Amino acid sequence: ATSPGFTVSPTEAKTLIGGFKDPSGLRASGIHLSGTKYLCIRADIKGGIPYPALSVRNSASCCRFSRWRNGDRRGLANDRTAFPWDHLTSVPADMNHATAEAFDKDPSPIKVNLGRGVYKDDNGKDWPLPSVIKAEAALVKSNLGSTEIPFDGLKEFTKVAADFLFGVDSELIKGRRVISVQTISGTGALRIGSEYLRDSMPHAPNIAYISQPSYVNHSAIFGKCNYEVRYFRYFDQKTNRLDLKGYLEDIQNAPKESLFLLHASGHNPTGCDPTQDQWTQIIDALTSRRHRIFVDIAYQGFASGNPDRDAFPIRYLQSKGDHPMVVAQSFSKNFGLYGERIGCLHVTDSKNPNNDRAMLKEIVERFYSNPPLYGAQIVSHVLSDPQLTKEWKDDVKTMANRIALMRNTLVDTLQKLGSKRDWTHIAQQIGMFAYSGLSESEVMKLRDEHVYLNPDGRMSISGVNSKNVEYLAQAIH
């Protein structure tokens, strides 16, 4: 801007920017003048706004805005240079993707990838589940075609997904007390569920409590839905164990009806799950304070090899009676359907089920209209066929057992090398990830040895195999 003395009045700013404001002023909001969209980076409308506060780049832009201010809008409709987009900056990758990018750039043939949360077999290759391959073959043979499905998804899929999660003998299922909506994997379920909880309970505190640490996308999802994101104590980095005392204290100290996001099993990033006894204490504390409970379950069956055991906190919570919960369910990890983006959102004990389903369908419609069909057909086919379900349970146990074996092998190898540190927590943790206890500086030093894990010490055990475990242990030691 070339006119530092030029000032926009609050009224003009509201007109120009469209009236959107928050407590700190206007931010990144679209403005429309004669059909042309412009952008304001930031403007504080509490008082007069110096013209340079707007993202105007040159004197010609200044003149154009001056003409608009004085009622002359000629030429604006066809002018595409007034507010160029070159002020936009790149968004840094989160630690997961930053680690993946660093790994990809390393030309070493011996490099070890402990960053990606995708299951690999003992040869470091993708492993399509045999039961899933059979289901796909059956679908191809049936020639079902591809068609658009309703906003709330494939009915056959949402039914088997709910039965799988809550149990076929569940009182919630028998009493028709569950609303299930297909989503774009677990992330889509989290996003839709967070908006649903915000809008369906406007009287409740707009506060979301997330474990410290948690999956990198959790805080971003709830932040985008305008929750105040807070963290509850979860993992004690001094002991590499669950901080149950701190967890329970934070539940008690949170405002009543706050939202708590729980990892049902295979906690990401720590791999540190509460025991069943600890879960009962946690859920009893949450329900006594009438907190809203949102459960993220991405590893049912994959974490322990037993889908019923991995769903324990959900099964225990439903036994508490009428305390509602929302569950984000993913089939990426436990079915190996990473690219199909298949998930489901479940809402229990709704007081107005018809209204709530309509609300959920409306949220889905605004986001992506219709969920994907093919992956939903695969999951439906597997879970509705008793023989394929049995084979799937064998497949998921194969994955869980290999992960557990690599945990123990890594710890045993470190001990044989004479490491003085206690690594037993890695063997005791569960699921895809382990929180190694390595510091950021130690993680970065490992990159000199071509070993890549996240700066916080999270490692994907899936990247460990019988061919590289000794090399990895030597690098860590």
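the 2nd protein, sequnce then structure:
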Amino acid sequence: EVEVEEAAEVLTPSDLLERQIRGIEEVNSVFQIPPGTARILLAHFKWDKERLFERYYDGDRDKLFAEANCVNPASMKESSAELSPQADVCCDICFTDFPANQFRELPCGHAFCEEGWVAYLKEQIMEQGSASITCPGFDCPILADEYTVTQLLALEPQALKRYHYLAAKDFVH
């Protein structure tokens, strides 16, 4: 019996990012879903597009999205925040009142102030070492998408760099 060794391919961080973007774009073009949702689904399937496509077309899509900890875009409703943008709302992360227009909402409907979000994301990334960050809502399994995390951490370069490192590490494992 002859063993065949596969040659390892060395990828630069930009190569990894390019491959991720290509995979996300391909899934997005086939399923017509937001890129953040496509990324979460791909990560759930360890970036195996064929397995994702097979599962997407073979079975219960709502179950698929639930297992991947994201919301099926087909079942999403408009933003649940029907408050005046000037109305003060208490953030469940920092327990401080802010105008409603300073809140960020995930597809699950949970909304938190931007300051609370940033503190939560920094804790998850810098202290917990995680790029798979769940909604801080009580018992909510929904993952924050990369777009939301990147926007919220725009003024936190150290946390954003660590987040991208952790996300790339997840991609190669």
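Residues 13-31 form the longest helix (19 residues). The helical segments are 13-31, 35-44, 49-58, 61-67, 114-127, 146-152, 157-172.
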